[in-house]
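User: Teach me something about this protein's shape.
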Amino acid sequence: MRGTKVTSDGLAYLKQFPKLQKVYLYLTAIDDAGIEHISKIPTLRHVDVASTRITDASFGFLDRLPKLEHLEIYSKHISPKAAKAFRQAHPQCTIEGYEDEPSPGTSPPSN
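Assistant: First, the predicted structure itself:
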């Protein structure tokens, strides 16, 4: 669904796929309500929500994904503090789009 016109409400239909393991929502208009919908799919392992409208509130919903191994979150709406707390609570999960300390001369992509 990357780059499509999918909405947060539309994500409610994904629960019809109980074995779904990956969801790519990069460059969509989804927000925290959409993350709440996908948080009801416990088989998800890979979630790409980069360049979306999610905020720190989405981490509360992402906490519900017991098998989450990879998360892409490049977003100007996510605070470093919230991303760091999620990373500490989920050491098994690789998080892209957030670094504890950015490398010198680098900056995250703008959204």
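Now, about its shape. Strands lie at 22-24, 46-48, 70-72, 94-96. The chain has three helices and four strands. If you'd like, I can walk through any region in more detail.
User: That's plenty for now, thanks!
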